[in-house]
Design goal:
There is one protein chain. By secondary structure, the protein is α+β, with helices and mostly antiparallel strands. It has five helices and five strands. Helix content is 28%, strand content 13%. It is globular. The protein starts with 8 loop residues before the first strand and ends in a 5-residue tail after the last helix. The N terminus and C terminus are likely disordered.
Amino acid sequence: MAEGPVGDTRDDAAAPASGPVPCRVVVCRDCCCGTPKVTGVDHAAQTARLRARVPVRISACLDVCEQANVVVVQPSAAGRAVGARPVWLGLVNDPEATEDIVDWVRAGGPGIAPLPDILELYTFTPPRLGPAARGRRRTRS
Protein backbone atom coordinates (compact mmCIF):
# COMPACT_ATOMS: atom_id res chain seq x y z
CA MET A 1 0.00 0.00 0.00
CA ALA A 2 1.29 3.46 -0.74
CA GLU A 3 2.57 5.59 2.04
CA GLY A 4 1.36 9.13 2.31
CA PRO A 5 1.26 11.78 4.98
CA VAL A 6 -1.52 11.41 7.49
CA GLY A 7 -1.52 14.95 8.76
CA ASP A 8 -1.06 16.32 12.20
CA THR A 9 -2.59 14.00 14.72
CA ARG A 10 -2.70 13.55 18.44
CA ASP A 11 -2.71 10.47 20.61
CA ASP A 12 -6.18 9.73 21.93
CA ALA A 13 -5.62 6.30 23.42
CA ALA A 14 -2.88 4.27 25.00
CA ALA A 15 -2.33 0.60 24.35
CA PRO A 16 -4.99 -1.48 26.06
CA ALA A 17 -4.01 -2.94 29.42
CA SER A 18 -4.06 -6.48 27.99
CA GLY A 19 -0.68 -5.87 26.36
CA PRO A 20 1.02 -3.83 23.71
CA VAL A 21 -0.70 -3.37 20.38
CA PRO A 22 1.82 -3.53 17.57
CA CYS A 23 0.47 -0.71 15.41
CA ARG A 24 -1.68 2.43 15.51
CA VAL A 25 -4.92 3.46 13.83
CA VAL A 26 -5.50 6.97 12.50
CA VAL A 27 -9.17 7.91 12.12
CA CYS A 28 -10.15 10.89 9.99
CA ARG A 29 -12.79 13.00 11.72
CA ASP A 30 -13.35 16.37 10.08
CA CYS A 31 -15.33 17.82 7.19
CA CYS A 32 -16.85 14.56 5.91
CA CYS A 33 -15.52 11.61 7.89
CA GLY A 34 -17.30 11.28 11.19
CA THR A 35 -20.08 13.71 10.30
CA PRO A 36 -23.75 13.44 9.27
CA LYS A 37 -22.60 13.74 5.64
CA VAL A 38 -21.91 10.01 5.92
CA THR A 39 -25.37 8.77 6.81
CA GLY A 40 -26.39 5.66 8.70
CA VAL A 41 -23.17 5.41 10.70
CA ASP A 42 -22.77 5.79 14.44
CA HIS A 43 -19.46 7.61 14.21
CA ALA A 44 -19.04 7.97 17.97
CA ALA A 45 -19.59 4.24 18.48
CA GLN A 46 -17.09 3.42 15.72
CA THR A 47 -14.41 5.60 17.28
CA ALA A 48 -15.18 4.30 20.78
CA ARG A 49 -14.95 0.68 19.61
CA LEU A 50 -11.57 1.28 18.02
CA ARG A 51 -10.29 3.15 21.09
CA ALA A 52 -11.43 0.33 23.37
CA ARG A 53 -9.17 -2.16 21.59
CA VAL A 54 -6.29 -0.35 19.84
CA PRO A 55 -4.27 2.88 20.00
CA VAL A 56 -6.12 5.56 18.04
CA ARG A 57 -5.20 8.99 16.76
CA ILE A 58 -7.86 11.37 15.51
CA SER A 59 -6.86 13.38 12.44
CA ALA A 60 -8.24 16.44 10.75
CA CYS A 61 -9.17 16.07 7.08
CA LEU A 62 -6.95 13.67 5.16
CA ASP A 63 -8.18 15.12 1.83
CA VAL A 64 -9.84 11.94 0.58
CA CYS A 65 -13.43 12.87 1.38
CA GLU A 66 -14.82 10.66 -1.39
CA GLN A 67 -13.60 7.70 0.72
CA ALA A 68 -15.30 8.77 4.00
CA ASN A 69 -14.94 7.28 6.59
CA VAL A 70 -11.18 6.90 6.30
CA VAL A 71 -9.03 4.78 8.61
CA VAL A 72 -5.26 4.45 8.21
CA VAL A 73 -3.48 1.53 9.86
CA GLN A 74 0.14 2.40 10.54
CA PRO A 75 2.60 -0.47 10.96
CA SER A 76 4.53 -1.10 14.15
CA ALA A 77 8.30 -0.75 14.26
CA ALA A 78 8.54 -4.48 13.57
CA GLY A 79 6.22 -4.11 10.58
CA ARG A 80 8.23 -1.20 9.20
CA ALA A 81 11.42 -3.24 9.68
CA VAL A 82 10.09 -5.73 7.13
CA GLY A 83 9.02 -2.97 4.73
CA ALA A 84 5.37 -2.43 5.66
CA ARG A 85 3.76 0.94 4.98
CA PRO A 86 0.50 2.48 6.18
CA VAL A 87 -2.64 0.87 4.80
CA TRP A 88 -5.41 3.31 3.88
CA LEU A 89 -8.96 2.03 4.22
CA GLY A 90 -11.94 3.93 2.86
CA LEU A 91 -15.70 3.67 3.13
CA VAL A 92 -15.36 2.11 6.58
CA ASN A 93 -19.02 2.63 7.35
CA ASP A 94 -20.24 -0.52 9.06
CA PRO A 95 -19.53 -2.17 12.41
CA GLU A 96 -18.28 -5.37 10.77
CA ALA A 97 -15.51 -3.48 8.96
CA THR A 98 -14.53 -1.82 12.22
CA GLU A 99 -14.31 -5.25 13.90
CA ASP A 100 -12.22 -6.59 11.01
CA ILE A 101 -9.80 -3.69 11.46
CA VAL A 102 -9.58 -4.28 15.21
CA ASP A 103 -8.89 -7.99 14.68
CA TRP A 104 -6.17 -7.31 12.09
CA VAL A 105 -4.45 -4.68 14.24
CA ARG A 106 -4.57 -6.98 17.29
CA ALA A 107 -3.00 -9.73 15.13
CA GLY A 108 -0.11 -7.42 14.22
CA GLY A 109 -1.29 -5.30 11.30
CA PRO A 110 0.79 -4.33 8.26
CA GLY A 111 3.92 -6.40 7.75
CA ILE A 112 3.12 -8.78 10.59
CA ALA A 113 -0.34 -10.23 9.88
CA PRO A 114 -1.71 -10.74 6.37
CA LEU A 115 -4.37 -8.23 5.31
CA PRO A 116 -7.71 -10.05 5.56
CA ASP A 117 -9.40 -10.54 2.20
CA ILE A 118 -12.45 -8.56 3.34
CA LEU A 119 -10.30 -5.52 4.21
CA GLU A 120 -8.68 -5.65 0.78
CA LEU A 121 -12.03 -4.39 -0.51
CA TYR A 122 -11.60 -1.19 1.54
CA THR A 123 -8.00 -0.37 0.59
CA PHE A 124 -7.12 2.56 -1.63
CA THR A 125 -4.02 4.50 -2.58
CA PRO A 126 -4.19 8.07 -1.31
CA PRO A 127 -3.12 10.87 -3.60
CA ARG A 128 0.19 12.53 -2.90
CA LEU A 129 -0.36 15.84 -1.19
CA GLY A 130 1.60 18.99 -1.89
CA PRO A 131 2.77 21.48 0.75
CA ALA A 132 -0.38 23.62 0.40
CA ALA A 133 -2.68 20.70 1.25
CA ARG A 134 -0.50 19.64 4.17
CA GLY A 135 -0.60 23.21 5.50
CA ARG A 136 -4.43 23.10 5.68
CA ARG A 137 -4.35 20.20 8.10
CA ARG A 138 -4.76 20.84 11.76
CA THR A 139 -4.96 18.90 14.97
CA ARG A 140 -8.25 18.94 16.80
CA SER A 141 -8.04 19.49 20.50
